[in-house]
Amino acid sequence: MSSTPSRVHPAWLPPEALAPLTSGTAAVVGDGPCLDTARRELAGARPAPAREADVVVATGDACADDLGLAELPAPPPRGAVTVRTGGRLVVVGHDGAAALRGLYAAARTAARARLAGRSTPDGVSIDAPEQPRRMLDHWDNMEVHPVMGQVERGYAGGSLFFEAGRVRDDLARVHEYARLLASIGIDAVAVNNVNVHEREAHLLTDDLADVARLADVFRAYGMVTYLSVSFGSPRLLGHLATNDPLDEDVRAWWRQATDRVYATIPDFGGYVVKADSEGQPGPFAYGRTHADGANLLAEALRPHGGTVVWRAFVYDHRQDWRDRSTDRARAAHDHFAPLDGRFAENVVLQVKHGPMDFQVREPVSPVIAAMPRTRVAVELQVTQEYTGQQRHVAYLAPAWREYLGFRLDGEHTVAQLAAGETSPDRPQPAGGLAAVSNVGTDAFWTGHPLAQANLYAFGRLAWDSSLTAEEILDEWVALTFAGADDAALTRIAAALHAMMDDSLARYEAYTAPLGIGFMVTPGVHYGPSVEGYEYSPWGTYHFADRDGIGVDRTVATGTGYTGQYPSPWRETYESLETCPDELLLFFHHVPYTHVLHSGSTVVQHVYDSRADAVEQLDDVEGAWASLADLVGTAVPEAYDARVRERLAEQRRSAVEWRDQLRTYFHRASGIPDATGRAIY
Ligand code: GCW
To answer: What domains can be seen in the chain, in order of their start residue?
Structure first.
């Protein structure tokens, strides 16, 4: 039995989104998998010579005259030049992939212009991605695991790639997915979970022909394919006695395995590795460093132009909560910063955006600015592990924008550090952006239909982090509902802005106060459990007791984590005076009566924000209900049904969060809610 549903929602590329490009004549100049894809996209248009066609797609080697243009600027690396003149549209990409992305960009421009009620003016635009690497990681397993399901931290059904222990025979859905990703500029995809179990370890060797089938699909949309591999492969797959990165036999095994991969998939991207992390094997067992480990794989990949993506998510997950000197937030910097300059050129060190683990609110990881001689990539989590699991509306773009715009070394933004665009006195090689995908076999791709916007936004921010979250939402709405008439489209956009613009802030307000994370049900990470992780070995404590709450991470009296930041942040976070309210309890342990910059006390803030956030859900539900007359036309019935089902669960869960947190902190502190609201 296949778990692939027969009717799949087209996400942000319904036929109407491309219609403005296929209503007249079209020509695609050149050959190659991506230009063939462009040809298929324009199949609805009438063919015409490139000199005259209304829509033309070509690559940089085409000459202006042949395209019917007087002149043509050279397309930038990875990007495209788009010329609009006299009703014609000519897209010229640096290569086929860039040309295809340029074609989708033209559809987006048309959709946005329509929503804004204007036409797209004639002119030349030159567009290239800000991040040179824009990758999606999939935590997909080949088999279904009893607790996690098939996709680890997946909230949208099974894997698009694997079924019953192998790569699917029918990859039609993967084509659809690749198309969506190409349209938002993604250029690399890792297809399996970073926790590499025994079955998935064999993708590297025994299943290469099947991996090649996936790579064929992604290639046609301008993406390279990566595999997550186990550092333990030489022993597990090669039956060697060791995985020691400095052992000659181990090095030879990786070289040979990698040569075979490239013999099968010549443009293979490389390996993603989670080593010495949450039980995965790594170099520590042999007394070696993570540079030794990463360079071992880099050496095998280098002759083929491949890349090692080495994750920095290394910490002690067997901690004792009584040990106040070990601080998980410090771990990545402690392990990796001293290794700066020791990684091979084809190693990318992938760092989670925050020092802990994708919580609703975390400061930016100091590692991102600590390794100027290393290609650092920043990892975001599109899948909503700690942000409502695609049952709650939580539009993540506003937070990502804040992270990417954060001036971590006082001067350069996180986006600049990742892109390797820094000043001559502080060169930093490029690592790019990566994110954990949120899709699955669900008919809406993402469980909550509105969670599609998060995937969309990741690609767009990797392309251009100066876009605002609202602009990105406009684009996504205009494309997704391209089939709606003008009046309906305007109403849908207004309703979705009302529901989504502040949705993450609202989610934060009923779940995670003042920078405290992990008050979730252990294992599944959904729903409140204030002490769920408090006495566990995972290092995620908030230290709430009858007197106060928070983690003292100061240099003066705490774990010293604030000292890992460059100025001005080390001083800003160290001081109670200047530490921002929203991160107060991440950096400081304070009494419940501590007065915030907002004027409220810590405990009253906990009471108020939870109650207010739940009240706001009336408006969220009301905004969706205001579209009721469009259901069956602009809004498909199944879409509406799914959104309403998720809104009901969001309310149930939000009330549970509100009541559990208010009750817990009332009991712990003995301080009543000043407003007299009921405490359960
Ligand atoms: O937050 C943790 C998740 C794990 C995940 C890990 C990681 C893939 O709970 O499920 O494992 O992060 O990022 O490696």
So the answer is: 15-127 (3.30.379), 134-480 (3.20.20.80), 508-551+589-669 (3.90.1330.10)
